[in-house]
Structure formats: structure tokens, C-alpha cells
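Minutes, structural biology subgroup

Action item carried over from last meeting: produce the C-alpha cell record for Integrin alpha-4 (Dufourea novaeangliae). EB confirmed the sequence was re-checked against the source entry. Recorded below for completeness.
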Amino acid sequence: MKPILFLFLTVAYGYNIDTTFPIVYLYSAKFSSTSYFGYTVCLYHESINNTSWLIVGAPRANYSSFVKQKFRQLIEPGVVYRCSLDSPFCQEMKQKEIRDEESYITQLEMNIVIKKQRGWFGSAMSIDKSNGVLTVCAPRTIVSIFNPYDNIHFDTMQGMCYSGKISSTVLSTEYEDLEYHNFRSNIWYNPMYGFSIHYASIKEVKERRRITGKPMHETYGIVEIIQENKRLLAELPLNDELSQFGYSVESGYFFNKSQLLYVSGAPGWHYVGQVAIIDATTNVTSIVAKLQGTSTGEFFGASLAVGDIDNDGFDDLLVGAPYWEQDNGKVYGYFGTSKGHFEEVITLQGIVESSHFGYAIASGDLDADGFDDIIVGAPWEDSGVVYIYNGGTDLKHKNLRASERIEAIHFSLPDTYPKLERFGFSTSKPIDIDGNGYLDIPVGAYKSGYAVVLRSKPVVKTELLIRTVPSVLERDAKQFIVEICPRYDGQVSQIFIVISFKYNVMDYNSLLDMESEIRVTVDEQHQRTKEKLFQMKSSTLTSTACFETRVNILRNIRDFIEPISILARHDFVNTNASSHFCKFCPVERRTNKLNVAQILLPFNIDCGTDKICNSNISATAKFYGVRDNDTWIVGSTEVNLEISLKNYGEPAYLTTLQFTFPKGVILRSILPFCQEDTSKDKLLVFCEAGNPLWKGEERNITLDLDMKDLIHDSLYNRELNFYIAIETRSTNQGTTSITRMLNLVNEVSLSLNGKANEEAYYLSTIKDAASNISFQHTYQVYKLGATPVEDAQLVIKVPVAINVSDPLIYIYKPQLYVSGELFECFSKDILLDTESIDVQREWPMHKFDMHVVTNKMQETVDLKHKRDVNETRFELYNVKNIAASQLANESFINDILYMNCSTSNVYCTTIVCNLSVLKTLQDIGKVLIKLVLNVERLKGNILTSNKVVLKFDTEATVEILKPAVRLPVNETRSTIQLATMFYNSPKSEELQLWIIIASISVGLLLLIIFAMILSMLGFFKRKGKQNLSNDERLEETKELPRD
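Output recorded by EB:
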């Protein structure tokens, strides 16, 4: 038998159990499935010779060919192998007598024959480590009892055990059980002695103490305890035939650190199973405690293991129930106490149906942390799985999870070798077989004939110490130094010493391939340094080595409140892909948190010795471009929001303002120190307000708001909330938020102006005068107020007929003229077609056939405009349905005929123009009403006197429908009338020529007579002014005396 070393690629959670280089033993590629090699496994280390062995039971194996040829009749007796871990060989451990043995039972005074064939030698075994003794049992051994003289013969599946030094390859038969067995009881046969066996671990003396199970003794089972050279029996009270007491056995110091107690399982007891704790300190055994299963058929007690899981000095008991639920399997953990009873602390459950989790269990301190760990096999989960659970304190309040999960399904085996099956069917107490100070685990996979040894790696507890130079950064600092020193718990140095003196060069070189790696992350969250991630490596695993590196700070950083975080993590790394197991290459302790260290490097922020900046920010907010009480006219000028800050405390670092604007409000422009977030329904604006905002410093921030989208009718009297949050990395004891409300109102009106192109016309009575007159009424609409008009209309009422007569007035289709664009107006009546209307000229009448128009207009209806809350509609009144009592004489007052829509016997047409196109104050709507008066019909049927005057009026009304609620604007006019007068003038006559000549002659004659009278009066003989002056001087000269 040779061990076969395979490279396993397994899926494991990863801790210190190596799954890359296990030691694997295969019985035989040809007979692996029939020998049950790996049915039982045990590890043993002999410290004197520094030798380790794996003991493997193969209860259906045959001896080697040499022995088999010598004993041809010996079929499947079972073989036990001692496999060396230092050399690639396994040796057969033979019974001293391989052939059937003959003996004599004094109790019966009869002869016996111990038959070795199919005895299942190796199905149970245990090692007395204190004395180096191996005991192997064959529970299915048949013992034939006979008396050759009386022809008496009985065969019983008695079971036999064999013991011997483990350093030897020969085991001797134990006859004592046959002498002590009670052959005189009613059911004495088939006890299956040795179905289970266990040597107790003795703390003080090397006395042999052993418990052996006989689960079929008198059908219910019994256990035999050997201690102090005495044999004691123990059985369950109230046993039933299905109990199988003795199916599994163990021992431990559960309630007293100096009192050894034995344990035996009865998995068939009342279909739920029971475990008994046995005290054998006196000559009579007693059961001091019982544990029972909870589910029918779970086979509670089928497997047992003992270890100090919580490291309190008292052993703890693990009980397997591999058929729990749908054969998922379960393991119960009972913790020993000084109170004399167990506390159920943990339960581990299999998660896969039919996996038989807990079929084999063991316990031992695999990572050398002082807490025994739990090893659980689930041999029917895929090809077999082994779980490792680490012990610890306060497990009662923890959800214990596996630290490693080792799957056989991922093992890589040569194609010529059988698939590994039922991995985890057997295991036993872990032992350190390679001398690295850590326990190794044996695992059997009997179905495929494999036995596996999983070795443990050293576990090191690393502590990282970090410091920086300087310890405090100035705000203008450009770099700093990080120094990291790993400190180990001392085991690394011991490993170097041990390997140098005791082990070969290969082990030493493997250790040299190990590196200590420290991964350092600098300021990961705030990203203020150039170097953000770097590694430090060293191949010298000592407690005196330190690492240092220089870190550069980025320019123009802003956050000085938050210190720079330096996070370091230590790991062990194997630099070379080795082809063998490195038993001294350490791993980090799983529960160690000191291999990860962090230091915070602060900035000098001028905030006192406590390094906490207690700022006191006062903040106010004010709207500009609004009216009193923060009222804004919808559609008016843009609004400015100003925030004023002043700090009355210590510096406020990274002071920012967060504005939350109402829906529909945006910014016309963004300040360079502000940012917008448009990802949400409401606009968020973040503005930097100081880094720091020093004590006494003031800061004003003004935002230019764009309110152009707030034009809906529903906004009237609505309050818009502007929320401003003041945030700083300092501790702000002042204002932290402001809410300002802006009240919205609508203010808009429409005002009307109008003009008739001619205010009066004089109708001629001569025969060749015009038969109709074209005239115009022009209306202008002005928008007043800033709020946009969503819906408005201009309603123009035009009289067209008096009484039931034919129409007097014909109307061209009017158009609304706004800012260079033409828009159609509407009427229910038939109007004259036109392509365009030029408001500066008269309309050429020759384009229209008045007879056709007359016929159409006779069918017109009066359109009277009415509004209710919900809609605008027109009611039609047929001219022919008007009562005949409404006669023309009702319109004659003082010789004036009034033709307007307020007069009862006048029939009108209504024209409606949509004014929603008036958006701004610069928009002016102009409507030209082109009208034609039928003079012949007026003079012939209506005007009967030369003194009668026709006063024609059109009426226009403007109405705003949306916004429905609004503030009025003063000095507006919503209704206006335009009038045109038509006078019925007398007949014109020609002036005679003789009258003109006579008039001129009389005028000339009167002029001549007037001139003659003036001449007679001397008017034309008067002196001039100069002549009068000269005469006056001459008279003065004459009067002077002479000398």
C-alpha cells in the first residue's frame, strides 16, 4: 500500500486547513470499492522517535497475496494498515493468529472456535496514546461454541478485539471478554462486542481506561468500561429492543475537571435516540445525565465527539443525528458546566437533503487559539463534504458558520483512478503529524477506498502599528510620511528557530518563499492624495521590520475638516507556486482584527485643542424683484434670491448652501462656485460659501431665478417654498436652514380702443349717386399687466338688419393682426370672402356681386354670445322668428334712426377673435371690420324723410378667460362702441351764370362810388409827414428877431 499525493483544487471558505496538498492513500484502483478502505481512520504521533502514522481500517479487505495463498479459506477478514507519513508505504497490521483460533471457556466448560472470516476486523479501533497501544475490533466475528462429547454447537456473532503496540505490526486477541461475558443470561448471543471502542485521555496517570460498546447485547445493548484493572458494565434503564446502547462511545471531563465521565449513544431508543453520561468512579456504574433527541428517526447519538469548544476548562459534548429531517443531518452541542448538567448551546444543521450531515464528527484545536474546533462529515452530500467550525466564546448568541467547506467533488484525480466517494464518512481526533504545532485531520472515504490527511498551516496573529510624520498637517502641506510596523505574536520567530535546527532545507526554502504583504489605502473616500493605493512587501518575517513611504498631497484641496484616512491590511503571500506543502508558511488568524489598522491624519484647522470647530453661522434670505410681502406677479420681471451669511464662531470649513427650488423654478445663469442637480423633480443647487468662513466674515450669494415656466392659471395665490440648508463640516451652532415663501398672484387686463375711418356720410338723392357705401371700424386691444394671457377673446357685435327686412350691412371676414401676423376670427354667419385687408385703403367694391351677397345674408342668424362656468357657446336666433310687433318706429327718436345691437328690432352678427396670441406688453391686437351699407335699401325702405339720420354702432367686448382669478389693472376699458353717422342730405342744384356776372358788377360799382367819396373829402390830398416837419421849421425861422 503506497500513499498517493494529489494536487487538489477544492472549493473552501479558506482558513488554515490546506486543501492544495493533502496526503491521499488509495487501497487499490482495482479493489478500492470492495475493501472499505477508509471505513475508520486514526492519526498517531510518537514523540520519542518523532514518527507519525495514519491507521486505516478496511473491514472487508483481504490480506496480501502471500498471506492469502497461505490461508485460502480466509475470505474478507478485514485488514488494518499503518501508513507512514514520512515514507510512501503502508503496512498490514496482522492478528497474531491469522487463522481461526481455538480456545476453551471455563464459564461454560466448552470449547470455542474464533472464526476470522468476514469478521469486519478494522471497523472500530482506538489508540491509547499514553501507552502507545492500538486496539482494533472485529464486531462481526463469529464464535462457535461446542462440546465434542455432547454434540452441542452454537454460533454467536460475539465480536472480538485485538490489541498491541502501535509500533508493532502484530495484534493479540483479547480473550478476557469471553471470560467475562454472561453466557447464562436469556439472550446471551450476538452482542457484537467491539462495535465501538474508545480510549479515554487521562490527564495525570497512564492507566488504561477504555469503553467498549456491545449494542446488541440482549438486543438492547450495553457498554463495558475498563479502568483500574476492573471491568464494569453499564446499561440504560427502561431500554427497548431498538436502543442499540453502545452504538457510539466517548469520554470527557464535563462537570468536574478531575472527574472522568463516559458517554454512550443509543440512537434507536424510542425512535428518537438517547445519550447517557456514565460515572464509573465506584465499583458500580451510574448514569448521571441523559440527553434525548427531538425528532423521530433522527438517530440521535449515532456519532459522538468531545472537545473544549468554549475554552472554559470543561469538556463539551457533540452529538450527531445524521437522519434528522430528510436525512439532512444535525449536530447538537452541549457545553459542560460546574453545575453538574449540560447547557445546549449550539445546533448545526445540514442544508442538503440526504447528506447525512453529522455521520462522523470530531473536535480539536486546529488553529491553536485555545478553542477546540468542530469537524463534521456529510458523506452523502455530493461525493462528500467536510465542514470546519471554529470554537469561541459566547457561541450561544452567535450564528455559528463554517470557516471551511472542503468538497470532494472538486478533487482532481487521474482518470485511471476511481472517483472519490463518501468523503467524510469517518474521521477522528486531529493530531499534529508534521511537527509544525498545528493539528491535522484524517478523513476516510470508504466507498471509493481512499483515506486522506488534511494538514494545517500555522496561524499567526499580526498587529499593525501605524504612525505619520508629521502627526498634524498644515493646510498648505504638500506631503507626509507613513510608517507601518507589523508585530507578530512570536510564533513566526519560533518557526524560524525550529526549522533551522530540526527540519530539512526544503522546508526552510519554502518558508523563504513567504512574504509579508501590507496593502495600504490612503484617503479612499476624499481622494486628496496622489498615491491612493500601494503595497509594502518583505520576505523577513520578524517583529522588528518596519516599512515607510512618502505620500504627496494634491493641490487645491478643499476639505480640511476630515482627516486623511490611512488603512493598512497585512497578509501572508506565497510568491512561488510550490510543488509541495509548506508546513511552516503561516496564515492570518481568522478572528484577528489587528492585522487591519487605520490612522487618521488631521489638518491644523485653528479650532482649539479639541480639534472641533464650533461655528455659529447667522443666515438671512431675501427676494428682490418682488412686491411687498414677497408677492410676485406671474410673468413679471425675474426674481433674485440673496442669501447673507455671517459667522460669529470658530472657522466654518466647507460651508455650502443647498437650495431646493419649487418645481418649475430654474436658474437663468449659474454662478461659478455653484452646481446644479437636475436629476430630480425639483432643482437642487449647491453653492460653496467659504472654506473656511472665518469668524466675523460675511458672505452674500445672489441667485438669478428664471420663473418663465410659472404661467399656469392654477398658480394664483399659490405659495412657493424655497428651502435653503446651511451645511458645514464644522459644528454649526447657528442657523442650519431657512425657508422663504414667495406668494404668486396674476395681474393682467385687456384694454380696448377703436376708431371709425369716417364718422359721417351724406347720402345723395340723385339718380346717379352710389348704390352702396363701404366703410370701416377698427378695434385695437392692448395687454396690460405682466401675467401672460392663457385664454381670452374679443367679441364684436355688428348690426346687419332692421326689422325683418333684407340686410342693410354686409361684412367681410375680419382678421386679427398681431406683430406682423394675421389670425382668423370666426363667426357663425356667412361673411364676405377676402384675401387680405389693408387697413390703409378702401376696399374695391367691384370685386363683389352684391346680389349674391344679399341672398346669402338673408339667411343669416343672429349670434348672441353667452358664457357660463364651463364653456362658451353661441345661441342662434332666426330672423324670421322675430315678432312682427317690433316695428321700425321703435328706433326713431328725434328723427334719428339707431342701428345698434342694443335696440330690440336690430339683428346682429357676432364675431369672435382669439386673443391668446397676446403674450407680451408689446403685442397689440388690431381687428379691421370692413362693412358695406346698401344705400338703396336704406333710402327706399327705411329713411322716409330728408331729416332722418342713421346712426350705426358696432360694439366690442374683450374678456380674459384664463387666468380666471387675477388682480385688475386700473384705467382699462373692456367694452367700446364705434359709431358712423349717415345723413340723408337734400338735392344739390347748379348756380346760374347771370347771377355770378351781376354779383361781380354790383361789387365793382360799389367800389367806384366809395373811392369818389374819399377823393371829395380830400383824402387823397393830405400832406405827408416829412412835408409837415419842413413847414414847422420854416415858421420857426420867421419868428426869430433880426440883429
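Discussion: Residues 1-13, 493-506, 835-893 have pLDDT under 50 and may be disordered.
Next step: EB to file the record with the rest of the batch.
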